[in-house]
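Practice problem: Inositol-tetrakisphosphate 1-kinase 3
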Amino acid sequence: MRMMKEEIEEQTREEELLSFPQTQQQSKLVVVGYALTSKKTKSFLQPKLEGLARNKGILFVAIDQNRPLSDQGPFDIVLHKLTGKEWRQILEEYRQTHPEVTVLDPPYAIQHLHNRQSMLQCVADMNLSNSYGKVDVPRQLVIERDASSIPDVVLKAGLTLPLVAKPLVADGSAKSHELSLAYDQYSLKKLEPPLVLQEFVNHGGVLFKVYIVGEAIKVVRRFSLPDVTKQDLSRSAGVFRFPRVSCAAASADDADLDPCVAELPPRPLLERLAKELRRQLGLRLFNLDIIREHGTRDQFYVIDINYFPGYGKMPEYEHIFTDFLLSLTQSRYKKKSC
Ligand SMILES: Nc1ncnc2c1ncn2[C@@H]1O[C@H](COP(=O)(O)OP(=O)(O)OP(=O)(O)O)[C@@H](O)[C@H]1O
Ligand SMILES: O=P(O)(O)O[C@H]1[C@H](OP(=O)(O)O)[C@@H](OP(=O)(O)O)[C@@H](O)[C@@H](O)[C@@H]1OP(=O)(O)O
Ligand SMILES: [Mg+2]
Ligand SMILES: [Mg+2]
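Answer key — structure tokens:
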């Protein structure tokens, strides 16, 4: 007789459990359910992560979106990065009915990052400035509709060209990553709202990606858009489109760079920024793109924040991530015994 799908899954899981070191079969395993796109599963769930996790007693189990979430598991942690209202509702309901499970992260908090205005609002409100530096967001305005009005609106708001035009919605779709650089005021009419118009900040062509996993922070350098000089601006006109520019950007960690451009932002400044963002956004898994204004030592701008970014590109992510997952279950255990 053919085995039921559930039975096969149960058997596979039992076999997986048996492949764990014996000490871990006896002590409690941390079961992490994941709901990720196939692209994300490939980049995140690399064999080196799964191997280390196994040694530490962590088991990753794929969530079947065609079956009720409550019938699966039991999970200690749910990791997810999928879009859609329906999925969000499923997760919110699951959080209510399964308070013992840590859902990374709450869907309502992630929603905050799906709009490029609300995404940076926390940073703007923070007014972070101390002896290590100053963190701002570029001046920007939201255009909801009517492209023909943009030149006027930009003039009135006093924004300085060139401007980066970014789709207002940042939901991870290919379209949400289609950016443009506008050199002159009249070409702005060619843009397609709803969008955010952000002042382009010269930063020496290098940006810093700050990856956050709970309390841990890792910073890497990436090549970015080159500076735009006054001469470039007077010579060029029009709108230059650059789809998925950030994904194509190579690592700049080993490049021979001007030390003033390459110097990482001060660690204490990033720690303060990360701590505030973690608290205010209510998120534990995100990264931010931060740039240093060219010609300054300590003026920084946050230009982008992403939920559950490409951790596969973060150095030592397998150690950092597994330690983080373990720390979550330990703190839950501590809370319970208190
Ligand atoms: N205000 C700005 N000033 C200078 N360069 C910028 C600015 N905004 C964006 N850029 C450049 O454009 C790139 C893409 O912008 P941004 O990071 O906002 O887009 P994204 O599609 O959300 O990227 P990601 O793939 O990281 O989610 C940046 O990595 C940077 O090189
Ligand atoms: O493509 P990668 O895995 O590297 O990760 C990228 C991730 O794509 P994915 O979540 O679809 O995989 C993007 O998410 P969406 O905005 O498209 O949702 C965004 O977070 C990028 O910033 C990540 O690149 P990183 O900033 O880490 O370099
Ligand atoms: Mg970015
Ligand atoms: Mg982004």
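Discussion: The CA atoms of residues 91 and 264 lie 37 Å apart. Students who identified this feature from the tokens alone can consider the problem solved.
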